[in-house]
Design goal:
Strand content: under 5%
Order of helices and strands: HHHHHHEEHHHH
Radius of gyration: 18 Å
Largest sheet: 2 strands, antiparallel
Shape: globular
Strand order of the largest sheet: 1-2
Number of strands: 2
Number of helices: 10
Helix content: 55-70%
Structural class: mainly alpha
């Protein structure tokens, strides 16, 4: 997964975006934290390495979306996917079980993600203010709505796409994880899924059922 993300970064045409992402992903201390971080406490990708998997899967979707919508700034969209959840590395701690850190509860991964990116941007000479603003907007708006925790709504096409791609990957992966859990009763239905406010149909004879 990590090498796959590096390959995507290497093909980004915007040299300033590529320099920023390479500075982050060539950092050995970052690599270890990124590869062991969960992406959530209890819904989607709620396991060690979940953050990397979530990011990598979203990149695959974003690359295809950028082919369909050629007007979109592909480099900005891919960068948004890569950086949008980096604050999760400080928001969540996993030692036997996944829980929020004190900073995670008091500040949250969206604000911490902007702080994280800021530190790397400061280390790059003459990084454009306008580009920095667009990247931070991607982080700040990626939950898509105020009621879902974003302090600002997506106001660029790229940030709008990011919020859709993020939500799709989170909900589908979360649903698949839930279907894969034994409910102790057998049958074709999961326990009630409060994150989706419904039961999910799970055919035990389906060959595509999650193991």
């Amino acid at each position: 997964i990590y090498s796959g993300i590096l390959e995507v970064i290497s093909k980004i045409e915007n040299s300033q975006i590529r320099e920023l992402l390479e500075a982050i992903f060539r950092d050995d201390s970052f690599k270890e934290r990124f590869l062991t971080s969960p992406a959530a406490k209890s819904w989607h990708h709620s396991y060690l390495g979940g953050l990397a998997e979530h990011t990598f899967d979203m990149l695959g979707t974003a690359e295809r979306v950028a082919e369909i919508y050629s007007e979109v700034d592909r480099d900005l969209l891919l960068a948004g996917v890569i950086i949008h959840d980096l604050g999760k590395m400080q928001e969540l701690a996993a030692s036997g079980y996944i829980d929020y850190t004190d900073r995670g509860r008091l500040i949250g991964h969206i604000a911490m993600g902007v702080e994280f990116i800021n530190e790397y941007i400061r280390g790059i000479d003459d990084f454009p203010d306008d580009l920095a603003m667009k990247l931070k907007h991607m982080i700040l708006s990626h939950h898509g709505s105020l009621e879902h925790g974003s302090p600002i709504l997506p106001m660029t096409v790229e940030s709008l796409l990011l919020s859709y791609i993020d939500n799709m990957d989170a909900q589908v992966r979360g649903a698949l994880q839930f279907i894969g859990k034994p409910n102790g009763k057998g049958g074709r239905w999961t326990e009630y899924v409060r994150f989706l406010d419904r039961f999910l149909y799970s055919d035990p004879d389906d060959k595509n059922e999650v193991e």
